[in-house]
Amino acid sequence: MAGGRSRGAATLIAVAVVLAWLVVGGIAGPYAGKLGDVATNDNASFLPADAEATRAQDLAAGFVAEPTTPALVVYARSTGITPADTRRAVADSARFAQVDGVVGPLPPPIASQDGQALQVVVPIDDSEGERIGQVVDELRSIAGGDRDGLTVDVAGPAGLLADLIEVFSAIDGPLLLVTLVVVLIILLIVYRSPVLWVFPLLAAGMSYALASVFVYSLAKNDVIKLNGQAQGILTVLVFGAGTDYALLLIARYREELHRHERPWDAMRAAWRGAAPAIAASGATVIVSLLCLLLSSLNSNRALGPVAAIGIAATLLVMLTFLPALLVLGGRRAFWPRTPRVDRADPQTEHGLWARIAGFVARRARVVWLTTAVVLALLTLGLTQLGATTLGQSELFTDRTDSVAGQEVIARHYPAGTGSPATVFTRQQSAGQVAQVAQGVPGVAAVRPVTRRDQTGPPDPNAPPLVVDGRVQLEATLTDPPDSDAAERTIRDLREAVHRVPAADAVVGGFTAIDVDTSDASTRDRNVIIPVVLAVIAVILALLLRALVAPVLLIATVVLSFLATLGLCAVIFRYLLDFPGVDASFPLFAFVFLVALGIDYNIFLMSRVREESVRRGTRAGVLAGLTVTGGVITSAGIVLAATFSALAVLPLVVLVELGVAVAVGVLLDTIVVRSLLVPALSYDIGPKVWWPSRLSRSARNDTEVQRAR
After folding, report:
1. Distance from CA of residue 642 to its chain's centroid?
2. What pLDDT was estimated at residue 399?
């Protein structure tokens, strides 16, 4: 009777937990599709307040009635623009001015010197926000497509922003669907059960819904600035990490079902065994991600809390909702491979990994030296990495309308036309600053902004517009505004105008934003990476109650990270034909690879320590590797596959990050965690736990070495 009452109470508790979470899911679920409504994709809004481009943007607000972002509609005919083409551009311009969000009247079309192109500058009110994408779509609809040899494209900053918004709109649909399908397929392969895959997938979906509520609320109330990149990473991170945690808990639950008759007792034992490792793993990732709050870029500072919220929600769901589901499913959830109570040693179910453990024991020093040398050789690929700021034409994996339009502008106009650098200077120094700016290589022309510029074409004889004692100069660059050459010109321009006495010159504009973003990314990388390593070292020391093991684990993960970057550099350049990586890529790759790579070492070494207490260190290493090998490798494959889903978004930055995380996670799970760490730990022996008491216990280690 007591057993029946206990079983009934356990079932009621599990039912109550599941029902409570289903209510939460019903409330939170709709928010998963609303994150795009509160996302912002304007690069300037992510800059630090003290960046020169930010100060220039603040000064620019005083020179216009309404801050605008220009769209550049360009018409081109290789045989020369005809009178009919000109009439079409003029008629289109009149219709553009009537579109809601466009600040008119518009200046007349600008003809190129070679007579093969016309360009219409269409200022769009910045207050439109994300609706700029809809305004650009209307402009494209009015302009129509290519016809009779005349090409028509909408480019410029507004065109680029519209294309980015369109790309990120796929997050709530295709990216989420692909991620779900990938996880489902892998779970079916891993479990070979028509039932069991439902539990981790349902729990991961619940995690995503819960995270979405908090992220949506913070973004809507301007606590964080959510962008499409962070939104995409949140999707794959929650499903990838959530499935990893589920795999670990389910594997331990399966072990305990061999030892306990009742599912409730098995889950209680499994939870006690797996929860500390899962919690430590999640805490490591959360703390590492929160280190991004040290970033000077708002975009990075937003990604940290967004991703950390995702992991926190995942931990909560996987340690409460998933166990309740598994208890209700009982042994039937594993059908047709139903675990029976046989008190069998867990190692007996892992034949392949028992053989790998035996190989590691027999050749420990050779294994860790060989794997370390191989990883070190892969780091040589770092010479091919070439971190830079990707240009507009290099940003997308597809050739978008804005890219095509920018290429036309670069062929027929000074490439910086439509996106000039802006120079703000004191009125009394304006002439000298203009003269100095004109002499900078890469600057095609410099002119002051005049009052008549606000209502019609520029008048060269009109006096400069003066606001609070300052004059605005526009410097047209000879190179495309998103090119490396244009960035060098901006740096030279800043250096030149800053030397003018008492000018207090400030240089901003589209290219200046890219320059300041790149500089901030470099600063962030140099500050945040050491902090993340220090934080992880402290967490590992507390978890493993040792100092040697954490140092070894961090060293192996850093080596794996550098090897991943080297291998990815070769893949990007020679297989994917990418021009390089964005300046933010090394930091993002580091945070995710090191945090997630440490995850798997925590899963392994926490189990190794548990077994070492009972068996001795070397026997514990072999037992830990044997029983965790399959589940951690499966978890790594899941995470690699989910991050690979980022490839459905045609952005080079996200494709590169997805490839890097996938490659790095596979290196960690297959090479580092399966061979390097166990072999190194086995070779060192009990001293790996120094200075804890376990380091002074050599029980069973001598016998294990003799047996091998």
Report:
1. 13
2. 80
